[in-house]
Design a protein that fits this description.
Layout (H helix, E strand, L loop, with lengths): L7 E8 L5 H15 L5 E7 L9 E8 L2 H8 L2 H10 L8 E5 L3 H4 L9 H21 L1 H4 L5 H27 L1 H5 L13 E2 L5
Antiparallel strand pairs: 1-3, 1-4, 2-3, 4-5
Length: 199
């Protein structure tokens, strides 16, 4: 059996020059809107330094349909135009790495991903109420549907709720516990797949 292609998650860190933060965020908002129209780009999120933090690092997490579409996006004229626009606002080149599996949910700005057992517990806490809640609501409404269509619709709701509602809430609520005792240096004791954005 051929495994289905998995989305590719990319975390990019840029150091923004002091005083250029508002201009960078405005430019990035416009770039998000344009880039999300590109084939293969599933979504994008901005991670900003906490209020009062001296950090100048901004994180961007993007998701792509495949490695090929990721590479095509970063080689596109749209991305090259963005690099030129943001270069005067940035200090140095961006740091880019791929996130794998649960790490895509749990990595925060300037933080290492938690241990797998913590990510598993947090995911379990999100999955159980979602499935139980949908079983009592949506499940009853579509109970008479054929098996395949029933499962397609039910699981689509599960994935959507986990991705855009439940897991963001869970990771925020458990942030202190998830990161407790973990190094705040993104590269600490971890393996990351880096790729070149400067081709």
């Amino acid at each position: 059996m051929i495994a289905s292609a998995q989305p590719i998650y990319v975390a990019i860190t840029r150091r923004i020059k002091p005083g250029c933060e508002q201009e960078f965020q405005a430019a990035l908002k416009e770039f998000f809107a344009r880039s999300l129209a590109e084939s293969g780009v599933h979504g994008a999120a901005l991670l900003v330094p906490p209020p009062g933090s001296p950090s100048t690092e901004y994180g961007i997490i993007r998701s792509f349909a495949s490695i090929a579409e990721r590479d095509a996006f970063y080689a596109s004229p749209l991305y090259r135009e963005w690099k030129k626009r943001v270069a005067p606002l940035s200090s140095g080149e961006p740091d880019a790495r791929e996130l794998h599996g649960l790490e895509a949910f749990f990595r925060g700005n300037n933080s290492a991903s938690p241990p797998l057992w913590k990510m598993a517990i947090a995911t379990y806490l999100g999955v159980v109420p979602v499935i139980m809640g949908l079983a009592l609501t949506l499940g009853r409404l579509i109970a008479s549907w054929n098996f395949v269509l029933n499962n397609i619709v039910f699981n689509a709701f599960v994935v959507a709720l986990l991705t855009w509602v439940v897991m963001p809430l869970i990771t925020r609520a458990l942030h202190g516990w998830l990161q407790a005792g973990e190094s705040k240096t993104p590269m600490s004791n971890e393996h990351h797949d880096h790729f070149n954005l400067n081709q």
